[in-house]
Amino acid sequence: MSPKAPFSANCVPRGIIVPMNSQVAELESNWARAATRLGDCGIRVTDQRLQIASILLSAPRHLSAEQIADALRHGGAQVSKATVYNTLNLFAARGLIRRLSVDGTCAWFDSNVEPHYHFHDEQSGALSDVSVNDVQFSRLPSPPAGMEVAGIDLVIRLRRRLT
Ligand SMILES: [Zn+2]
Asked: Where are the domains of the chain?
């Protein structure tokens, strides 16, 4: 791993008394939180998985695989887009994050796995959360025989008003 990686262990002094640095403390707590969450989901912790999880889990956020790959590369990490994509799909399959189908152009990954819906700004591409309490479905079709509803995805597409 490159020493320039954003969440590299090299960035976080261990066993050394250093002046209080909130950025170092924040990185360290991001690492620790991400490692705990990976373990809770039964995902074996590796440096690469920890880096990707740290980026996504540092705050509630929606990121594409491309954005995460860019963030890793920006920090000097050598990670292929395919690796990032596979890792994110593993995380989603284990319930650590949620994979979103928004507009079919790219996959988005959501660090908030609680039930919720989304606004999607078509111009900027930004996603924002909508509480399930703010949405009410008055009628839904019955699922086919032998099936049950596993979940409902709702994306409310937004555009600027012309006036
Ligand atoms: Zn969300």
From this structure: 9-108, 114-158
pLDDT per residue over 17-57, tens digit each?
444 566 677 767 778 888 999 999 999 999 899 999 998 88
pLDDT value of residue 62: 93
Rg of the chain in Å (alpha carbons): 19
- Ligand 1 centre to CA of 14 (Å) is 34
> What's the pLDDT tens digit per position in 51-84?
999 988 888 889 988 889 998 998 888 888 899 9
Distance 69 CA to ligand 1 centre (A): 20
Distance (Å) from CA 70 to ligand 1 centroid: 21
Residues 27 and 7 sit within 8 Å (Cβ to Cβ): yes
CATH number at 9-108? 1.10.10.10
How far apart, in Å, are the Cα atoms of 107 and each of 15, 88, 152? 40, 10, 17
- Compute, in angstroms, the gap from residue 86 CA to the centroid of ligand 1: 20
Question: Can you tell me the distance from the alpha carbon of 163 to that of 153, in angstroms, rounded to the nearest whole number?
Answer: 30
